Amino acid sequence: MSELIQIQDLKKNFHVGSGRVLKAIDGVSFSIREGETFGLVGESGCGKTTTGRVLVRLYEPSGGKIIYKGRDTSTLNKNESKEFCRDVQMIFQDPYASLNPRMSVEDIVAEGLDIHMQLTRSARRAAVHELLELVGLNKEHAGRFPHEFSGGQRQRIGIARALASKPRFLICDEPISALDVSIQAQIVNLLMRIQKELGLTYLFIAHDLSMVKYISDRVGVMYLGSLVEVADSNELYANPMHPYTKALLSAIPIPDPDLEATRQREKLQGEIPSPINAPPGCKFSKRCPHVMDVCTKVMPPMIEVAPGHTCACHLYTKK
Amino acid sequence: MLLELKDLKVSFDTYAGEVQAVRGVSFSLDKGEVVALVGESGCGKSVTAQSVMGLLAKPAGRIKSGSIKIEGVEASGFSEKQWEGIRGKKIGMIFQDPMTSLNPTMTIGAQISEGLIRHQGMNKKQALERAEEMLKLVEIPNVQERIHQYPHEFSGGMRQRAMIAIALACNPELVIADEPTTALDVTIQAQVLDLLKNLQQKLETAVIIITHDLGVVASIAQRVMVMYGGIIVEAGNLKDIYYEGKHPYTWGLMKSIPRLDRTKADELSPIEGTPPDLFAPPAGCPFADRCDWCMKVCKTDMPPLHKVSETHSVACWLLHDGAPKVESPLVPHGATGARKSKGARHV
């Protein structure tokens, strides 16, 4: 499989006043192969959403490169940029806030069509109807407004909008976390079906690790702006290496009372520190149960601990 | 018996008509028990809890019929004054979102003291001393300093700890926790759940925990009540529900959540459709429209409560003697591999 998008040492800083800098993304590198789903997980404030936003160029990166189909996206000219925007689309977290309440579903879905393809009125309508049917709505819905729909249906509208410009790469930023349990599975199954039908590549951002495990081929774990571990999804869950990944996995309650009663938890003390003026060294060192001297001084490099499994932790650099 | 609800019905009058949020809920709770109310948004779980606290939004919300007994005393007709004697003293409440349910203009210490001054007749100094003890109990570091801080100086997890301290300050018999960890990150959620569990055992407080997360339920509760469309569709102890579940909605819930300990091969099957409209709730079973095993009678008649065992009861027509026998589509407890789930059969 060839690599569709490569992220190299990506950085994004926000200036938060008084000369302080919030490093939302602090040197993240990974690549996503054509046709796969890459899951990005982490707790709030870890930079996963910012990564997604930088990728669709909602934010300009402060450093590093995004290479899409072999080309650095910062060197694209105007036409190429438009092409890139057409190829890379986004599904947002909150289906209540991400649809314009004053636009009809038809106009919402057709926005991408209007920008990227000049269609006649009837062709535009036909395209919208086709998209609505693709996401499990029907054409009668085209004339309605967002408030007439439930959360799950709204998210379907958001997905139809993202698919309108015939993209190849979709960034799904917590697309299910605002939905009810029984509806979440509907949307996830829809996303997986569409991926198969249209051959799409996904970046799936979420904090729900069980859902990420279910949908992703490979998973990256972020902590405070850095990527700490990347592996195939089954490998990551069967064989977590980084102390943070271990703690994160064991913190998730499993819906099985017998298992829950006998499970050993890797407990984590304290809370996520502020990403403003973060200390040198490993970002996780303050909460890590295996912290060593070197951890507070040197940032651990990302090294391959098993084929296709990389991890940034000093516990593994020595060997 | 600490708490007893009998056929509680709660409605809200809105401009569009009457919303029948709770349509006949009965259960009881003993001292020291931990019970979970599980269900999706709009199923009536929060409204049930609000009625127990006398916190229904007035004047829209009203108890239509049924009874709420707190330590044997009928409470459904209580005046606001009478409720004030119960809230915070006999029943404490932990709300979902610690960001919005603490008062931003009061220090944490003052917010914990409030209940103590009112219910236990303490003076300010005594109350602050007790507040300090409470903050230590919920494992907040640097208490001397923290007690004089405002909510915005606390992180999300700390705020939820402070909220637990407020709820427990007057040694209530019962604590109602409405989605106490939903707004928190997983590692913080694990800390807060551990704390709740330890305190519950130490203080022997009864807890009603409201959540949609079946994992959280499995880690903390003793008994579970599954709500759907304003009624309790299945109730039992943990094992009854997780391993011996009998209601198609319970099956659907279990099948629609991915599990960390399963592989991708286990299929995720959503419950198709959406929950019923409580403006005009269906005459029969509220789940009938989404149920793979729906029969004629399900659409017309509300299913009665069948007792499966001493602890386990199910409101479903499939358990009627005349109904066809249906096997649970879930992987049987203890089985390692996934069993081929049988296709839904319409009967």
Structural overview:
The complex is a heterodimer of chains A (319) and B (347). Chain A has 319 residues and is of the alpha/beta class. Chain A has a single domain (3-317), classed as Rossmann fold (3-Layer(aba) Sandwich). Chain A is built from eleven helices and twelve strands. Chain A has helices at residues 48-55, 78-87, 105-116, 121-134, 151-163, 181-198, 209-215, 233-238, 243-251, 257-262, 314-317, and strands at residues 3-15, 21-33, 37-41, 63-68, 71-72, 88-91, 169-173, 201-206, 218-223, 226-232, 303-306, 309-311. In chain A, helix 6 (181-198) links the parallel strand 7 and strand 8 (201-206). In chain A, helix 3 (105-116) packs across helix 4, helix 4 (121-134) packs across helix 5 (151-163) and helix 5 (151-163) runs parallel beside helix 6 (181-198). The model of chain A has no long low-confidence stretch (mean pLDDT 91). Chain B has 347 residues and is of the alpha/beta class. Chain B folds into two domains: 3-221, P-loop containing nucleotide triphosphate hydrolases (Rossmann fold, 3-Layer(aba) Sandwich), CATH 3.40.50; 227-319, no CATH class. Chain B is 31% helix and 22% strand. In chain B, the strands form two sheets. Chain B has an eight-stranded mixed β-sheet with strand order 6-7-8-3-9-10-12-11, sandwiched between helices. A four-stranded antiparallel β-sheet of chain B has the order 2-1-4-5, covered by helices on one side. In chain B, strand 4 (61-70) and strand 5 (73-74) form a beta hairpin. In chain B, helix 4 (108-119) runs parallel beside helix 7 (156-168), helix 5 (124-137) packs across helix 7 (156-168) and helix 7 packs parallel to helix 8. The radius of gyration of chain B is 21 Å and the shape is globular. Chain B starts with a strand and ends in a 32-residue tail after the last strand. At the A-B interface, helix 6, helix 7, helix 8, helix 9 and helix 10 of A face helix 8, helix 9, helix 10 and helix 11 of B.
